[in-house]
């Protein structure tokens, strides 16, 4: 069951201690879809999830608290990076560290010898996600014009590596707009 109200826990760190992260399974799909619909205007369908997770290199994980799914992440294993395809936390459980725990889990899967960076795209209008990723040390490395077919919206391509920004495969001269991005968001 997905709750929409804010958790009543008065001790967020104790609440997080009771949360576990595990592989996504078929049975999780109704709860995952409920969070998905509440999180995105253009949400994935069940078929989108299943088609994706049928790929050998695609992996889903869920954050579960007392048998309730409170967040999930779907990512793909590429040759030299992990690429996030979908990621959301139930609205009533945001700002409690669930997203951070899911990101930390993914970061733990990077290895110096092989996959050294995490990459993903964020909608230009998704300020909350941009602030979240910025708080996790992610960098905007490119602007993908008209990336989303539904709205023709631009995306910020973002990357993270615990091994330092010099290993970011996509690290390149920041475009003017991206340099502004940092300043604008810092001022927000
Ligand atoms: C982005 C998202 C996954 C973050 O999950 P979360 O569990 O709320 O994140 P956390 O609680 O770990 O947040 C860590 C930090 O990120 C920053 N942050 C997160 N959400 C923020 C917001 N709405 N506004 C400002 N800063 C925010 C804060 O610095 C926060 O620390 P604080 O709460 O101590 O201030 C969640 O907002 C979400 O599901 N959004 C809708 C779906 C989405 O946009 N997914 C990403 C697609 S690319």
From TrEMBL:
Pfam families listed in its UniProt record: Acetyltransf_1 (PF00583)
Write down the InterPro entries for this protein, in alphabetical order: AcTrfase_RimI/Ard1 (IPR006464), Acyl_CoA_acyltransferase (IPR016181), Bact_Acetyltransf (IPR050832), GNAT_dom (IPR000182)
Q: Which SUPFAM superfamilies match?
A: Acyl-CoA N-acyltransferases (Nat)
N-acetyltransferase domain sequence ranges: 19-163
Q: Which UniProt keywords apply?
A: Acyltransferase, Transferase
Which Gene3D superfamilies has this protein been placed in? 3.40.630.30
What PROSITE patterns does the record point to? GNAT
Q: Which CDD domains does the UniProt record give?
A: NAT_SF
MF terms in GO? N-acetyltransferase activity
What NCBIfam families does this protein's entry cite? rimI (TIGR01575)
Record's protein name: Ribosomal-protein-alanine acetyltransferase
Question: What organism is listed for this UniProt entry?
Answer: Planctopirus limnophila (strain ATCC 43296 / DSM 3776 / IFAM 1008 / Mu 290) (Planctomyces limnophilus)
